[in-house]
Amino acid sequence: MGSTFSKVDGQPDYTVELQFSSSIPIQSVVAAAEAAGQSILQIYKSEASKWEVQLKSDSSPLTRADFAANQIICDELTRLTPHIPIVSEENTVKPYDVRQNYQYHWLVDPLDGTKEFLKRNGEFTVNIALVTNGVPVLGVVHVPCQAKTYWAVKGKGAWLQTSQTQTQFQAAEFG
């Protein structure tokens, strides 16, 4: 038998804010995006009849590649940062009144450009961002068909990474 706890009327509803220090190896996040991209490419190169295309409630397409990439990314982000929630198009989304209080969260679009994926034009990406109090502080965009990954850390710079090189470049400031 389980217990039921309820708030007593008139009692204050206090919360405790936790501040903690945690480091996130950026190359692990990049590797997750690239692994997701490889998974997407395997499906992309297969027969279209195996893509298992569905329509979301907003009539946008969803494929087996979306789910496979999402699983890879979420597994790795959970392993790296089990204390940071993941907001992804392919996961059940928590209500805004819960999400608005996230100090940190991952924002993931495992296959941005599913319509382009379906057209087989190669114009789709894997997107991962770490958001702190509503501000992105780390971003990774992997372009599977070009084998390029762009990543940036707020206040540190932006890079283009391929299998052979990693080049820092000047990004415009915003925000």
TrEMBL record:
SUPFAM superfamilies: Carbohydrate phosphatase
PROSITE patterns found in the cross-reference section: IMP_1
Keyword set includes Cell division: no
Natural source organism: Dunaliella salina
Keywords associated with the record: Lithium, Magnesium, Metal-binding
Protein known as: 3'(2'),5'-bisphosphate nucleotidase CysQ
InterPro entries recorded: CysQ/Inositol_MonoPase, Inositol_monoP_metal-BS, Inositol_monophosphatase-like
CDD domains: CysQ
The family this protein is said to belong to: Belongs to the inositol monophosphatase superfamily.
PANTHER family found in the cross-reference section: 3'(2'),5'-BISPHOSPHATE NUCLEOTIDASE 1
The reaction(s) this protein catalyses: 1D-myo-inositol 1,3,4-trisphosphate + H2O = 1D-myo-inositol 3,4-bisphosphate + phosphate; 1D-myo-inositol 1,4-bisphosphate + H2O = 1D-myo-inositol 4-phosphate + phosphate
